[in-house]
Structure formats: C-alpha cells, structure tokens
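Box S1 | Example of a co-folding query
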Amino acid sequence: MAHLIDGTAVAAAVRAEVAEGAAAFAAAHGRRPALRVVLVGENPASQSYVRAKARAAGQAGIDAETLLRPADFSQADLLALIADLNADPAVDGILVQLPLPEHVDEAAVTRAIDPDKDVDGFHPENVGRLVLGEDTLEPCTPAGIVELLRRTGVETTGAHAVVLGRSNIVGKPMASLLLRRGLDCTVTVCHSRTRDVDAITRQADILVAAIGRAEFVTADMVKPGATVIDVGINRVEDESRERGYRLVGDIDFDAVSEVAGAITPVPGGVGPMTIAMLLANTLRAAERRAT
Ligand code: GUN
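Box S1 (continued) | Returned holo structure for guanine
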C-alpha cells in the first residue's frame, strides 16, 4: 500500500507558520496583512472555495474580505474595482476567483491586477518570472504540490515528472516549478491530444494529474513506487449521499494506492495546500510591500 500524503496535516503546519508570520507583521506594522477576494456570479463550487479561502485567512490573522458581485457585473466595473484595490495601500493581496462569467475577458482581468498584489501568481509578469526561475509569487496549487513533495521527502532531482494537463492555473506552472533549479526534474506535459498517454505516465517517478476527468488514471498507468499527486476535484452522482454527489479526483484512488509509493487523497490532499499557499503568498506580498 502506498504512503498516504496527508495534505490536511501539511497545510495545518504551513498555516501555523503563516499565522506566526502574520502576527509578527501586525506587531511590526500596526496592521494585519490584507487579502481581498473577488467573486463574480454564483458558481456553487467557486462560492465554496471562496468561503474556505476567507475563513482560513481570518484564522491565520489575515484581514480577509470577500467582495461578491452579481453575474452580470460588467468587465468595466470589475476593472474599476481592481484599480481601487491596486491603489489601496492597506491591501496586500487581490484574488479574483476563476472562472469568470462568459462576458468577462479573464486575461484582461488577470493583467489588471498589480503584480505585487497578485497572490494567485497569474499575471503575465509573474508567469514570466516563474519561467525564468526568478523570485515571484507562485501559483498556489502547484506551489502547494511542491511543498507536499518537499515535506514528504520525495526525491526530485533527476526524477521524471509527468504532468497531465496544460492549464494556466495548474499544468503549465507545475511544469515550470518542477523544472526549476532545486527541484531539477525532467518534465513531460501531457494533455487531451497526447498520443499513447499510458506509455508516458508509466515512465513517471512523479505523476501529477490535473485534467478534470474523474478517476482517469488507472493502476496500469502508474509505475510501481511512483509518487502520485491528484489535483482533480470532480463531482460524480451518488444517490447514497445526502447532497446527491461525492467528490473524486483524477486518479482511481483505491486501485492506484496498490501500485504507487505515495499518493494524495481527494479530499484532503492538494486542496488544503492550495489554500495554505494562498495565505503564505498573502503574507509574502505584505512583507515585500512593507520593505
Ligand atoms: N479557480 C480554480 N482555482 C483557482 C485559483 O487557484 N485561483 C483563482 N483565482 N481561481 C481559481
């Protein structure tokens, strides 16, 4: 059986460190690090993520406010709101929850956020810094995965890391981070058009699945002893649950657990780390802006 990588426990350790840092920041600067989370519309998954982010921030001693706007909020109004937050010296971090409604240009919104307040690490300037190996605010989910690998003691140098998925939020930044000095992986990125994906995943010492397809990765796709990281959160119908669905990852957890050396569960793996790294980025943004 694979070692279970406990994201909830690692996230708790990171959050405790952030809480210490946030208290020190408040003592030094007379105010708490401040995060503003913007949610446009009523996507139920986004609502629950945003609530979790704001609650965790408050618990860590970060001044967190959620700004809820209706689904028909215009792009111009959203850009004006971001401009106000950029100009507010008491705001350290700005997060606009994705996806945005169809009528809003996500790239334009991402570019509008001050790169120094971009706690998602999605601004093109921060993406560029990431690829160049420069110090930057790193996207929370891939940064959280790196933290899980580090704190679990997974050997990365020279390892073949295979990333399933090429999204701007996870797949692409994940590949950039794994390639950086210090981690030093050999990286392959696969996606929906990749030929013979199974043959590639079977070569992975570290396999990161971020494709949004329930239980896509089966046991025969995994090399014995590999470290398997599951980024997926998929709702599948389940009449036996009161809410009518259950959450499963992109990995067939039960079967892959028999083959892998280490594996993250869903829930309780990558998800809690994403939130912990958002808090860490907010503290970091505050500290950088204060000096
Ligand atoms: N939607 C899904 N993941 C994320 C994330 O990490 N940040 C933002 N802003 N939106 C998301």
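The mean pLDDT is 98. The first helix runs from residue 7 to 29.
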